[in-house]
Amino acid sequence: MYIERDPNGDFILESGDIADRFGLSREEFRRRIHQGLVTSTVERGEAEDIGTCRLSVRLGNRMWRAVLNNEGVVQNEAVTFVRGRGHTP
């Protein structure tokens, strides 16, 4: 997977690559983005993780996460299932 950064430092991900991670076509993934069903976050590493970033993209009860090193290369990634909001163990 190739992840770029724009001049402002924001991450740019290819929608087809992320769609594949969720088992969707690019068109279906884009449709869900336009419906507001896809959210994303960026966390910057601190202390011993300084220089790294964790990118997260959530769609329904699934989340794709990738950790990038200080050179922006994906070190690991995974798609997991997450509990719904409001769930109490």
UniProtKB/TrEMBL annotation:
Alphabetized InterPro entries for the sequence: DUF6522
Pfam families: DUF6522
Name of the protein: Uncharacterized protein
Organism annotation: Neorhizobium galegae bv. officinalis
